[in-house]
Amino acid sequence: MKYxxxxxxxxxxxxxxxxxxxxxxxxxxxxxxxxxxTSPPTPVGSGARAMGVGGAFIAVADDGTAANWNPAALIxxxxxxxxxxxxxxxxxxxxxxxxxYDVNYLSGSYPFTVKDINMIISFNYQRxxxxxxxxxxxxxxxxxxxGNQATWLVPGNGNPASVTQYDVVTMSGLNEKKNSEITAxxxxxxxxxxxxxAIQVTPKFSLGITANFWKDGWLDRGxxxxxxxxxxxxxxxxxxxxxxxxxxxxxxxxxxxxxxxNDYIDDLSCVDELIDPAKLGNPNPLYSNPKTxxxxxIVSQRMRMQGESYNLxxxxxxxxxxxxGAVYRTGAELNVDREIRQFQHQTSAWAxxxxxxxxxxxxxDEKIYLPSSYGLGAGFRYSDALTISADVxxxxxxxxxxxxxxxTRYSLITGLKQGxxxxxxxxxxxxxxxxxxxxxxxxxxxxxxxxxxxxxxLDRPDSFYGLTVGxxxxxxxxxxxxxxxxxxxxxxxxxYAANAERTELMEQAKGDVDQHQVMLSGIVHMP
Length: 527
Known about the structure:
Layout: E1 2-3, H1 12-18, E2 42-43, H2 48-52, H3 66-69, E3 81-93, E4 96-114, E5 117-130, E6 133-144, E7 149-154, E8 167-187, E9 189-202, E10 205-216, E11 223-246, E12 273-274, H4 277-280, E13 286-287, E14 291-317, E15 322-329, E16 332-348, E17 355-370, E18 373-381, E19 386-395, E20 401-403, E21 409-411, E22 426-438, E23 443-455, E24 462-475, E25 478-498, E26 505-525
Antiparallel strand pairs: 1-2, 3-4, 3-26, 4-5, 5-9, 6-8, 7-8, 8-11, 9-10, 10-14, 11-12, 11-13, 11-14, 14-15, 14-16, 15-18, 16-17, 17-20, 18-19, 19-22, 20-21, 22-23, 23-24, 24-25, 25-26
């Protein structure tokens, strides 16, 4: 029902998430989830008939996909049926493209009566998320890692005329300029097996429930990610040294003890005054000659996810012409088993940077929290041939989080810690119509719809717009439907990158998004 789409601008996040530095090729034990540089999910929906009327289906759903839209509306199915929905999806996201062809929905429904009370059971499969997108990007950036260690050099002599009146300290590190090529492959899907039940409480009022049992790779692969980060010969490093005064004499070494020459200082913040280069006779800071290097990192990630959620619905037949429907979709807590394998290798003409290949493997037990949503819809049957419908839905994207093993939660929209610039809920408005060309032996529907669809973003939600058209053919026990769906957003947020601590936003990439989708449904009615 939703898609995650990635953007190459946010590959800067990869550099920081890997925490790789030419100072050391050791692996870190807290590699953050690569979800953090995906962008907001895109609502898609289920079924060609539903999407043909713009997704305005909460009050008029009368096929197996009602288990998703409004399970109470399943009561409108009069005959047992089996259905399959296929879709083809083509997206361009800020100039990058992705395409996907897959099963969208499978269902089987059986209506029955107990003591004159109409009921129905339904078994469904829904593909709710996919992660299929490949991307490539070149990233240029600079890192000033000077001051990463401070060494006590010369104790002060107290003579105001002397250069060494105060304690003198040297601070050193690396100054780097890098040109990186980053490529990544995302693949996999997350779907749900969803049994549903509806009951007609009164002739005009029905209730329904759907249980969604989520798991990655029900019909296909689970969530997999592989990236390659290469910094080739145009990377450049320079050793850099600064000379400073400890002008107030508050520096300590060796755990709070007085410092001697060549001791490492306990706390770098005690160094408080840069020595004037005029007193040194040379530049301060002083750089070594540039050294080139080649750095290569390959990361493979596998995520296994499972959990459950519920859809609760009601349907009210207000009059022969008017119906109203409502649905509440609970949030879901998914258990995540995340496995990472990471390879690093670095070569350089500078001996201290020439490091052998090394491999790190990590495994984490974490959680994903999916958002809850509320929907309200109305349907108006002008005649047996014409039906008009409209929906409004609110989704709680502030609940869409990733939880690490230590309990820390991050927004899966922005990558920031929960409580830091949380995103607002979004609203979606849809309107559609269906006109039936009714012939003695067959029926041909003509459908169309429009929608306004918000996506979560910092400050305020972004606006997306779309239109749908659809048709089909019904003959005896067979119903075929097809729908075309176009959705677009202009200058919208396509992703975020946060710093390693997930406390500050580093990048907010914006661009244009276009999505084209074709759905094909086949329904077989069984008398």
